[in-house]
Amino acid sequence: MTTDSLTGLNLDDMDRLAQRLVSAIAPGDVILLIGDLGAGKTQFAKFLINAASTIHTEVPSPTFTLVQTYDTAKGEIWHFDLYRIEDEAEIEATGWDEALSHGISIVEWPDRLGRYLPKTRLEIHITIADDDSRTVSLLPIGATWQNRAIPLTKEKL
After folding, report:
1. What are the beta bridge partners of residue 124?
2. How many CB atoms neighbour CB 62 within 10 A?
3. How far apart are CA 127 and CA 92, in angstroms?
4. Across-strand partners of 67?
């Protein structure tokens, strides 16, 4: 497993990163967004969903609904926010199995997945600095992602 990282990103950079990443995603993929509260996980999910869509889509945070689905040019995207999950057994009620079978899953707060954590996934770690810039690290896990990992350079954003 290799990790690619970019530092000093602003929101426009994160949007461009999502636009680059969308070319590599396909149904069956799981993308985990990992970071502290306020790091930019939901914003990155919005950028990714809009990059996959043919028209601008309003993307509300699924904090209270737990999941939102979007029909996109790349396939159906399931956006999960598991912050309010207290027991991993609650995952089943979100449509998790259906999402894995044919959708693209974007998951915020994946530490709540427990035994549902997929063996093949792309982890996107987002940290925020004091100057409001972000560091984004991509960690492809599993052969499928290893073969599709996007090399990151800020100059290409």
Report:
1. 33, 138
2. 22
3. 29
4. 80
Q: Would the pLDDT of 13 be above 60?
A: yes
Q: Note the pLDDT of residue 85.
A: 92
pTM for the whole structure? 0.91
- Residue 153 class from Cβ within 10 Å (0-12 exposed, 13-18 middle, 19+ buried)? exposed
Query: What's the average model confidence in pLDDT over 40-56?
Result: 93
Cβ within 8 Å of residue 51, ≥6 positions away: 15, 18, 19, 21, 22
Per-residue pLDDT tens for 78-98?
A: 999 999 999 988 998 999 999
Question: Is 109's pLDDT higher than 80?
Answer: yes
CA distance 27 to 47: 18
Domain segments of the chain as ranges:
4-84+92-151
CB atoms within 10 A of CB 79: 28
CATH class (in words) of the domain with range 4-84+92-151: alpha beta
Amino acid in position 114: G
Q: How far apart are CA 76 and CA 107, in angstroms?
A: 14
